[in-house]
């Protein structure tokens, strides 16, 4: 029953992600706004995570996880594909933080532009999957590996060091980058006020840029808090297990299911925080489907009367003006 609930939840979340991605793709700012483009890639990554989690849940609920078999190889593959998708999601969040940090400089830094480019994110996507699937291949060739479908597999020390260690590093880098971005924004506010030497148009442009920066930082704050609450409990509990050699199955499943918290809340953050997506969402959900019948008669108005009178042909009149 729990497996069916998780599958239904993941399928629903996948639909929400697709809806959020379509709404974001329809916004006019997607082609111009780099922050929107990164948010779009993050939504796609979370949607892929939902599909992988559904597949793993189906395998674990249709086979005996305590017996050896071909389904154990499936669990082994998805035990590495899921962390790869999570690490790619963390990479996108880190790039969004670096992009916001770069926006605090008067002249954008070339290094930060390179680190937040599509090429850099593509290389990071490939490196993360090669990194995780390399361990998967080594585990497939090893005959003395624990059963991957069992709860002890993803809490062993080698798995924690290889998978949860990089996740914790990503979360730490995201937090540090975000703190530096906030510090730079507060520092810029205490600089000498230069509005007297600026034109009114330049002042308005600065106000709009500052407001846009604040909105993006609030959105990014929500994403970072959700990411930390999703990733850190599993990492901390894994370290606790290796220190005390005592595993609780219920807590282990709860910390693993917390990994869904990030893709669960991310699309709702975008829907309620980004104005363009919020407007499209409201229009889709609350627009009226009522249409006025074409055969209904309306009372004549002043506009219709004037238009009717302009179409009436008047008789020719003789001009009474004399020519000189």
From TrEMBL:
<feature type="transmembrane region" description="Helical">
    <location>
        <begin position="215"/>
        <end position="237"/>
    </location>
</feature>
<feature type="transmembrane region" description="Helical">
    <location>
        <begin position="168"/>
        <end position="185"/>
    </location>
</feature>
<dbReference type="GO" id="GO:0016020">
    <property type="term" value="C:membrane"/>
</dbReference>
<feature type="transmembrane region" description="Helical">
    <location>
        <begin position="6"/>
        <end position="24"/>
    </location>
</feature>
<keyword id="KW-0472">Membrane</keyword>
<protein>
    <recommendedName>
        <fullName>G-protein coupled receptors family 1 profile domain-containing protein</fullName>
    </recommendedName>
</protein>
<feature type="transmembrane region" description="Helical">
    <location>
        <begin position="111"/>
        <end position="131"/>
    </location>
</feature>
<keyword id="KW-0812">Transmembrane</keyword>
<keyword id="KW-1133">Transmembrane helix</keyword>
<feature type="transmembrane region" description="Helical">
    <location>
        <begin position="76"/>
        <end position="99"/>
    </location>
</feature>
<feature type="domain" description="G-protein coupled receptors family 1 profile">
    <location>
        <begin position="16"/>
        <end position="270"/>
    </location>
</feature>
<feature type="transmembrane region" description="Helical">
    <location>
        <begin position="36"/>
        <end position="56"/>
    </location>
</feature>
<dbReference type="InterPro" id="IPR017452">
    <property type="entry name" value="GPCR_Rhodpsn_7TM"/>
</dbReference>
């Amino acid at each position: 029953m729990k497996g069916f609930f998780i599958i239904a939840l993941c399928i629903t979340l996948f639909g929400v992600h697709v809806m959020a991605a379509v709404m974001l793709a329809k916004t006019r700012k997607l082609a111009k706004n780099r922050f929107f483009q990164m948010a779009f890639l993050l939504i796609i990554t979370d949607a892929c995570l939902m599909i992988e989690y559904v597949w793993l849940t189906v395998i674990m609920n249709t086979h005996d996880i305590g017996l050896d078999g071909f389904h154990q190889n499936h669990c082994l593959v998805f035990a590495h594909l899921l962390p790869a998708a999570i690490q790619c999601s963390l990479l996108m969040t880190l790039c969004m933080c670096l992009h916001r940090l770069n926006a605090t400089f008067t002249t954008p830094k070339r290094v930060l532009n390179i680190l937040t480019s599509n090429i850099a994110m593509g290389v990071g996507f490939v490196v993360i999957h090669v990194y995780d699937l390399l361990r998967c291949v080594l585990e497939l060739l090893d005959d003395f590996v624990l059963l991957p479908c069992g709860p002890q597999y993803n809490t062993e020390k080698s798995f924690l060091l290889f998978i949860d260690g990089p996740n914790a590093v990503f979360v730490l880098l995201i937090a540090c980058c975000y703190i530096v971005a906030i510090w730079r924004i507060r520092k810029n506010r205490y600089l000498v006020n230069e509005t007297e030497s600026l034109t009114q148009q330049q002042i308005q442009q600065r106000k709009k840029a500052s407001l846009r920066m604040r909105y993006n930082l609030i959105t990014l704050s929500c994403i970072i808090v959700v990411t930390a609450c999703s990733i850190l409990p599993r990492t901390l509990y894994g370290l606790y297990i290796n220190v005390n050699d005592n595993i609780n199955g219920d807590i282990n499943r709860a910390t693993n299911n917390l990994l869904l918290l990030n893709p669960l809340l991310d699309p709702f953050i975008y829907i309620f925080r980004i104005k363009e997506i919020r407007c499209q969402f409201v229009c889709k959900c609350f627009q009226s489907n009522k249409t006025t019948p074409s055969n209904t008669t309306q009372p004549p108005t002043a506009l219709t009367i004037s238009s009717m009178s302009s179409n009436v042909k008047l008789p020719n009149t003789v001009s009474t003006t004399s020519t000189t």
